[in-house]
Amino acid sequence: MTGAGKTWLACALAQQACRQGLSALYLRAPGLFDELSVGHADGSFRKRLAAIAKVNVLIIDDFAIAPMGARERADLLEVLDDRVGTRSTLITSQLHLDQWHDYIGDPTLADAILDRLMHSAHKIHLEGRESMRKHAAAGA
């Protein structure tokens, strides 16, 4: 649900990690995929992947907000491959988890991506009736 506090919670967790001396990086999924696409074009893809792999806590916000193509699927698998078992990845999405496989599209890559994400995942399901932004605007 829009405005339920997913991004706020993700950023609060990253902020706490930073307070404990860990590094964190926040990226919206469309921006991550755009950045990696540029990396393919200008030859910096591997360098950017290596930089992302070093970050202790990676937040990918707004996952599944736009269609995912073959390049994005492959790039996401690359990002996750470098992190699985060594670093934390936090993903927010309005799409329910049981729909992620269909959203990703390619069954083989969807299996690989979800295996890396869900193997030791903690899942938080937020519910709400109205956007928190609406409540914040009313109180301002």
Overview of the structural elements:
This protein has 140 residues and is an alpha/beta fold. The protein has one domain (6-139): Rossmann fold (3-Layer(aba) Sandwich), CATH 3.40.50. 54% of the residues lie in helices and 13% in strands. It has seven helices and three strands. The model has no long low-confidence stretch (mean pLDDT 92).
Layout of strands and helices, then pairs:
Layout: H1 6-19, E1 24-28, H2 29-42, H3 45-54, E2 57-63, H4 70-81, E3 88-93, H5 100-104, H6 107-118, H7 132-139
Parallel strand pairs: 1-2, 2-3
Helix pairs in contact: 2-3, 4-6
In short:
By secondary structure, this protein is an alpha/beta fold.
**Could you give the count of β-strands?**
3
CATH architecture: 3-Layer(aba) Sandwich
Major sheet strand order: 1-2-3
Largest sheet at a glance?
3 strands, parallel
Count of separate DSSP helical elements:
7
Q: CATH superfamily membership, which one?
A: P-loop containing nucleotide triphosphate hydrolases
- Mean pLDDT figure: 92
Question: What is the CATH top level name?
Answer: Alpha Beta
Proportion in β-strands: 5-15%
